[in-house]
Design brief:
By secondary structure, the protein is an all-alpha fold. 86% of the residues lie in helices and 0% in strands.
């Protein structure tokens, strides 16, 4: 039953993805984020309402209803946009020329292949982990889920800036295109590398806070934290690869991401079994992190030397600057970690206090060091956050005039 319901939901997922992409063209980014809540909401609803009668079928029914609602929401917004833009609904079903269809297939086939190739690598990793002692696969899965803390903001950045990439390339404005790519590169690393440096120090308290309850033993927390630390090494590469893929897609290049993904998958297939035998789960994590950096360096090198989108010196210089920033951030955080480590018992509440204190230090010290090192993006982010708060607060002058 689960497979049948998920099979019915798959076309809805695909069409929802298409609709979401169209909305991105019209700079409608907020709807996709909100729509992601619908499947989860319907799963909770169906489990509460029909969980006893349907069992696990309630889970599948919730997923199916959630994606029906998501596609309906996207369709309503697209209809409104088509009316505002004077686009006839009948044109949605119009058959275009054979040349246009072939071009769409030419671009989409490598993209679909990239998705399947990515799943291939995950299957190889999970298969190697499943042959290890019980609990290893679960610990790796917990560590993997925590990587979402690193990729959340860069993924949003890549999504928002993608239409700007496409517009600059369509206008054949190489200067603007290069500026946007360089800016995306700098912002992606600024959002990931400093956070990775702090989380490497705070990985054990974070794992304890998130999962340290129930059957999660102290040993399991330590092992999960170690895996999380190794995976953090490759996390910036994953975020940067997502941005570089958007750059390639904006140039209608879907083949180079597929080739890089294929090389990475072949490397995982060849190296993961040996790493699992010699190094266990930690060895698998190290192989994955190293291959992640290898893939992103290969993609970046291809784009730099083929399309001249960035200067090599600028790439290396900014990476070195961020390395100094990460070192300056890690030192005070490590000092606080040593102070809290005097308490041998790590409880979720104790970990929450420690992480909150170090979060404050991360913001204050990180901003100060960024100003000293000349990283102007930090000041731009602060100004943007202040502007957002001002938009949320009532207009003081307006209230005074009313009084």
């Amino acid at each position: 039953m689960l497979i049948r319901c998920f099979s019915l939901a798959f076309p809805l997922m695909a069409w929802s993805g298409v609709a979401s992409g169209i909305l991105y063209v019209y700079r409608v980014f907020w709807l996709s984020a909100i729509a992601q809540l619908l499947p989860n909401s319907f799963v909770i609803l169906t489990v509460f309402v029909a969980g006893r009668e349907l069992g696990v079928g309630a889970l599948a029914l919730g997923i199916l209803l959630g994606y029906v609602a998501m596609l309906g929401l996207f369709s309503l917004v697209l209809i409104r946009i088509s009316r505002d833009s004077s686009i006839k609904l009948s044109s949605w079903f119009k058959l275009y020329s054979r040349e246009g269809l072939m071009k769409a297939l030419h671009l989409s086939v490598p993209l679909i292949a990239t998705i399947f190739i990515g799943q291939w690598g995950i299957v190889i990793i999970n298969r190697a982990l499943s042959e290890m002692p019980p609990g290893t696969l679960a610990e790796f899965g917990y560590a993997w889920k925590l990587l979402a803390l690193i990729g959340l903001l860069p993924a949003g950045l890549a999504t928002v800036i993608f239409p700007a990439f496409s517009d600059a390339h369509a206008r054949d404005n190489l200067v603007e295109f290069s500026r946007l790519v360089t800016r995306a590169y700098r912002m992606t690393l600024l959002l990931t590398l400093p956070l990775v440096a702090v989380l490497l120090v705070e990985r054990i308290p974070l794992v304890s806070l998130m999962f340290g309850r129930g059957g999660m033993t102290t040993r399991a927390v330590a092992e999960t934290g170690q895996l999380f630390g190794i995976l953090l090494v490759g996390a910036p590469a994953g975020a940067l690869n997502a941005a570089l893929c958007k750059v390639a897609f904006s140039m209608q290049d879907t083949k180079s991401p597929m080739v890089v993904a294929l090389i990475s998958a072949l490397a995982i297939t060849a190296l993961v079994p040996h790493a699992a035998v010699s190094g266990g789960a930690n060895g698998v994590a190290w192989v994955f992190s190293v291959i992640s950096w290898g893939g992103v360096l290969l993609m970046m090198g291809y784009q730099i030397f083929r399309y001249k989108i960035m200067l090599v010196f600028e790439v290396v210089r900014f990476f070195g600057t961020l390395t100094a920033l990460c070192a300056g951030l890690a030192l005070p955080v490590a000092a606080i970690r040593d102070l809290f480590e005097l308490n041998k018992l790590i409880t979720p509440g104790f970990a929450l206090v420690e992480i909150a204190l170090e979060g404050i230090i991360f913001i204050i010290v990180g901003y100060g060091l960024s100003r000293m090192l000349g990283i102007h993006e930090a000041s731009e982010m602060v100004r943007y956050i202040n502007w957002q708060f001002q938009q949320m607060l009532p207009d003081t002058k307006c209230h005074q005039q009313i009084k």
